[in-house]
Amino acid sequence: MKHGFHKRGVPMARRITLSPGQLSLLTSVYIVAGLNSAFWGRLLAALQPGSTVDWLFVSALATILVATLNAVLIVAAFPYVQKSVAAALILLSASTAYFVQEFGTAIDANMVRNVLETNAREAEEFLTAQLVGFIFLLGVVPAAIISIVPVRWTPLPQALPSNIVRALMSCAVAAALVFAFFANLAGTFRENRALLLTLVPSNVIVALERYHAGRDQRTAGRLGTFGGDARRDQGQAVSTRPLVTVLVIGETARSANFSLNGYSRETNPRLAGTDGVLSLRHAASCGTDTAHSLPCMFSGLGEAQFTVPRAAAQENLLHILKRVGIDVLWRDNQSGCKGVCNGVSTEVLARKGEAFYADVTSYDEALLDGLEPRLAAMEHGGVIVLHMIGSHGPAYHKRVPPSFVRFQPTCETSQLSRCTTEQIVNSYDNTILYADHVLAELIGILRAADAKGVDTTMFYVSDHGESLGEKGIYLHGLPRALAPKEQTHIPMIMWASQSAQGRLGLDMECLHEIAATKPASHDNLFHTMLGIFGVQTRLYDPRLDILHRCRAHRASRT
Description:
By secondary structure, this protein is α/β, with parallel strands linked by helices. It has helices at 20-34, 37-47, 52-75, 82-103, 109-116, 120-126, 129-148, 156-180, 182-191, 202-217, 234-237, 269-272, 290-299, 308-312, 317-323, 371-377, 421-451, 485-488, 498-504, 508-517, 523-532; strands at residues 231-232, 243-250, 278-279, 282-284, 327-332, 345-348, 382-387, 455-462, 467-468, 474-475, 489-490, 492-496, 519-521, 535-536. The protein has two domains: 20-216, no CATH class; 231-509, Alkaline Phosphatase, subunit A (3-Layer(aba) Sandwich), CATH 3.40.720.10. The chain is elongated and about 85 Å long. It starts with 19 loop residues before the first helix and ends in a 22-residue tail after the last strand.
């Protein structure tokens, strides 16, 4: 038998091997071209290239990305290191690419915060066969191939200088092309800043770094005092009737789908027929995700000055109210209060083993169970916060009891790409219809408490809105500056019992006019709540108190 041949004369298949440089280049090309289809699709839609120069720019950008990633992998071109780095980048990119492609998700620090601070129940809704299949085929399989393909390693003394030279060459190519096409790059990404948030894996790597940098800045231990000069108006403190406000924090509700705000479908039939309900039609959220908006609305810092680390290091509205003698209770049917309720009484519905409700469920009506005795127990006045699961997606169908599935056909899966726009909107509208029912039931409870000697008010506000496929975008979480109005235009609804209206001196005709015409935002919540309870502090700004302009008089509180 001749060397290199079987007995029958058939050549032996040579075993495939790669050099470290080939492995790095192939991995880079795969990630840039194979796992970034959403990025390239959006780029081409934004550029609409029609000339040779346009296509040269697209080609140059692809080369810049490949060369940059190649430089990173070349630096790591050592046994046991390069393969691990390449496989990790592929798995990370595939996992991120699924959400970018499926939901149009933009990955930034706030999105990372949402993912890392969610609970298992919410995470399970995203765990679909499509997600598993996507990551397996586009992530696990390529990573496995990398692990088994032999690489021709060079001894370390020769490899180190060679790797540095090759990495510098890749960087030089990228730098030269950046210089040549700088005007195109600057113009494209300045006008389309969200593009970079869809580019894997750089988007998630940068977001993780910024998220952890923010966490490191938070002050550990005792919260810094905020509003230390706060004191309660004595008339409020000694009133023979306590004043209790139920503050309902909605989830992912957008104003555009509330019939109270002009939506063509009747999604708020019960609230529309309830006396005293006010809907502020022009309200805006502080952020586009719960982890940002929730602490922002309670912080008192205002959208312009708010940062998550700053808010996490100091007291908020609830702590100020508690300090001046107002009872505070937080009831949660969500993934937590994002630190807002730290230090106040809390009842958690959604976590196993900590539930106050016997049958743990996602339905928000459970938040009303046992509410009457808690209202009656607040002898000095109080605030009860109800944190709803609301319209949390993508599993909108799970938020609604069967009796409230009025709009059909519905989307019965978390994989929104399998549903039509009609099905998605129907499912979402059913969640708004159910929220209308919950709020109307709550008002009924508050009216009954009022008849028993407790002045009651309700304030409902959503944390952020939701995209339902407009411009190919779903869910929420885009950076505030780039977010479409669907993610920032939110419902804000108020109600007060007759006795509370008189106590606060409210001119309801004036309030209806303000609700219909004036802008509002999460910034108003802090100051409106201080105003309701007569809390005096230098932090209070009457211009941001929604009720202040419509107080016909300051009722005596005796």
